[in-house]
Amino acid sequence: MRRLPAEREIAPGVEGGERAELRRLMVRLADGDRAAFRPAFALLWPRLRAFAARCVAAADAEDVAQAALLRVFSRASEYDAERDALAWALGIAAWECRTLRRTRQRRREDQVAPPDPPDPAENPEGTIIARDLSAAAEAVLGTLRPNDVETITAAAAGSGKLRGATFRKRLSRALGRLRIAWRARHGSR
Amino acid sequence: MAADELDLRLQARARRAYELGRLLAALRLAPFVLAAAVAAIACGRPFPVTCALALPLLLLSVGLAYAGGPAGRAVRPGLLAGAGALAAPLLMATVGHACFGPACMSLALPACVVGGGLAGVVIARTTVRRDADLPFVLGALAVAALTGALGCTLAGAAGVLGMLAGVVVAGAPVLVAARR
């Protein structure tokens, strides 16, 4: 499965050990272990900031990342140990991005997402097409519920719980809703 | 340096958000405690006695759940176990059993002991299933005892002591057998 644009940038730094460590830290935080706060903050903050930088304009990225970080920690006691902590946090961040976009749309101050950094290995036409596709995918993803975003990002990141029947069912439903949202916005392409 | 200061400030804000989130999550237990108190009052328990028990129960439940750890995890099982001990004597009173003077002891006291025994088994089995430690058992016992006492005051101090005896007598063998 093709990785989502923001996940593509963030996932390589959070593979394997760090991902599992974040999960362990969030479980400890959910249980009330305050000693896990500092390391969890150190792991989460750079990832949320990177995610926000890919989802919204650079001027808003810091605010969105901060809002997402505060939301993640305020909901830490609700964290379910069965879920992937990074996907859960990025789902919350995606929701914050969506909220900002909607607010901007309402105020008619909607800003165009920042372009991806150009890749010298690709030709200019390919870069433009990839950028358009990324922006379109992000826009459609932003209209989904946080649970659906979390499920899709977890699947895109190749999370270990992909084998579970429950997860596959959730993923199937989330992708179905993504398809509907895509068709609503872009027709049947 | 400035970036470090910003990070520290953000860390402090995140910590406040975390603590506030935990407090709000712990406060979600309050309706259950209040419902238990209302049920006790509705079944005729004196208002001052019920308040004297419900207030510590509320503070204990919310406090332990907020603090977290094994004792925090014990609050829900404790409330559940205590609900049985609370319901047993109150049901006796509401199904027509006259509870005046010595006649009250004929059914209300045994109901408290049986309710306590039920609570003891629930706590012991939960402890075994979760492989929990002493703080979990103590937290669950304290919460269950206060919850059950809301109903067992129907049989006076003897009812509360009977309930506690029921908890120990029924719960201890389950725990001991599981630890062997």
Description:
The complex is a heterodimer of chains A (189) and B (180). Helices cover 68% and strands 0% of the residues of chain A. Chain A has one domain. Chain A contains eight helices and no strands. The radius of gyration of chain A is 17 Å and the shape is globular. The model of chain A has no long low-confidence stretch (mean pLDDT 78). Chain B has 180 residues and is an all-alpha fold. Chain B has one domain. The model of chain B has no long low-confidence stretch (mean pLDDT 87). Chains A and B meet through helix 3 and helix 4 of A and helix 1 and helix 4 of B.
Unreliable segments of chain A (pLDDT under 50, ≥5 consecutive)?
none
Mean pLDDT of chain B comes to 87
Oligomer: heterodimer
Q: Count the beta strands of chain A.
A: 0
Q: Estimate the mean pLDDT confidence of chain A.
A: 78
Count of runs of 4 or more consecutive helical residues of chain A: 8
> Nearest-angstrom radius of gyration of chain A?
17 Å
Distance between the termini of chain A: 18 Å
DSSP summary, beta strand count of chain B: 0
Give the distance, in angstroms, between the N- and C-terminal Cα atoms of chain B.
58 Å
- Share in β-strands of chain B: under 5%
Structural classification of chain B:
mainly alpha
Q: Give the helix level of chain A as a range of percent.
A: 55-70%
Shape of chain B: flat
Q: Describe the largest sheet of chain B.
A: none
Mass-distribution shape of chain A = globular
Beta-strand portion of chain A reads under 5%
Structural class, from secondary structure content of chain A?
Answer: mainly alpha
State the helix count of chain B: 8
How is the main sheet of chain A built? none
